[in-house]
Amino acid sequence: MTASDGIDERIQALRRRDRRFARDAYDFVLEALDHTLVHLGKDRLTGEERHVGGRELLDGIREFGAQQFGPMAPLVFRRWGVRSTDDFGEIVFNLIDIGLLSRRADDSRLDFADAYDFDLAFAELFRDRLAHISRAV
């Protein structure tokens, strides 16, 4: 998708009515979805076969967030107004509402509920690196 597809305008209009999350959070979710599609091998599929469920997307968000921001991912998410996996569900359903994402009938915000704690999840991913840093101080 490019800016000429009206994505910028749709997200700006969305954010005028729902200011909870930073613009960067929406861009990140779209990029994390692309990352997840590739990781799951669904990037070349079409229709229902291409669908990514909420928990799959949250795993992709964790992985992509770790790649992009390292152990600082929880801080970045909080700066965007994202405090829990539930918030990523809200972002996804906002993107569905403006036609940038689609859903299956059985997709629900509950798919994103309490999947993992950001601080614990990223601390686990970066445990060795963080331990090394703390020993060096």
Structure description:
The model has no long low-confidence stretch (mean pLDDT 91). The protein is built from 7 helices and no strands. It has one domain. It is mainly alpha-helical. The protein is globular.
Topology readout:
Blueprint: H1 7-17, H2 23-39, H3 54-69, H4 73-79, H5 85-97, H6 118-125, H7 127-136
Helix pairs in contact: 2-3
What are its keywords?
globular, mainly alpha, 137 residues
Enumerate how many helices there are, as a single number: 7
| Rg of Cα set | 16 Å
Total strands: 0
- Write down the overall geometry: globular
What about the largest sheet?
none
Low-confidence stretches: none
Question: How many discrete domains?
Answer: 1
User: Helix coverage percent of residues?
Assistant: 55-70%
Mean pLDDT: 91
Q: What structural class should be given to the helix and strand makeup? A: mainly alpha
Terminus-to-terminus distance = 44 Å
Residue share in β-strands: under 5%
The helix-strand sequence is HHHHHHH
Please provide a brief summary of the model.
The chain has 137 residues and is mainly alpha-helical. It is 60% helix and 0% strand. It has one domain (3-136).
